[in-house]
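Give me the 3D structure for CCHC-type domain-containing protein.
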Amino acid sequence: MADAGPNQLALQALIDRNELADEAERVGLCDGLDSSSVKRYMEEMTYVPDNLKLRVMRRTARGAFRRELEDAIADHVAQHGQDHLPYERVRRHLLNAFVSLDLDESRRVELEKMRRQPAEEIVYFNRRFKTDMNDAYPTDQHQNRNPEVHKILVRLYGRCLNSKRKAGYMIANGRPETIEGPMVRMRRKEEADVAFEQLGYDEEPMELGYVASKAATEHPTPKPSLEMQRLQTHVSKLEAKIDKLIAAKPSSFQQPRGGTQGERGEFQRDRRLESRRREDVCYNCGRKGHFARECNVNHNRNDKAPKN
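Predicted structure for CCHC-type domain-containing protein (308 residues):
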């Protein structure tokens, strides 16, 4: 147990060395001779863990790129008297040295041209937008941006979504004040869409007010004419009268409540007679629904028969 601490430290050091080697192999070498290769190198460095960025950069930098990196570190140590250098400052220094003299302007142009791909997940799009956003509109020393920059970034983010419907959803509850708001909102929206698809729905239903206003705008209900309104009122009154008549007139086969025993017996006989009338066939004409003594055909023949 006494040497458990050193063993754990040695194991952690081995894990860090292996992780450093894996990240360095994934990023690749960079000598700074080609500006496009420097851009790709910096994009790969974005996915390196923060605690390994400078170590990976020192391990993979070659030639003039390595000398510029060491000069930036030496200048920082001379000014601040410490060996720790923020990676963001190193990255911007190297990009200014090897990519463009007006880096911010070129990055802003690239950000305006960015568009989300059809099959691109919102998490990867947000990461890509955030990387180019930090390059084009860097924060100050307190990691803040002024409100005007946030307005520009919100507008660019809505355009880069490449969908008017999603951009409209982004500002459905009002224009966000910071760029972080719409990014979080769109991520939660698409996560909810995926959950609803798993339940068998096409997408998450939007807010009722938004849907109602959109439906009213796209498909306005036509206003009925004055004559149509009068007809509808007349039909409603007739229906009300019919309902009252039906409720007031009892059914022919409704058994009377109470009454004497003779009245109830007469009711039962009438029901049996009516049932036979419906089922039996007339002996005179061969049709159902009446008896021979009630047959009109019989009467007509008697009227037309010659008298002796």
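The mean pLDDT is 75. Let me know if you want a second pass.
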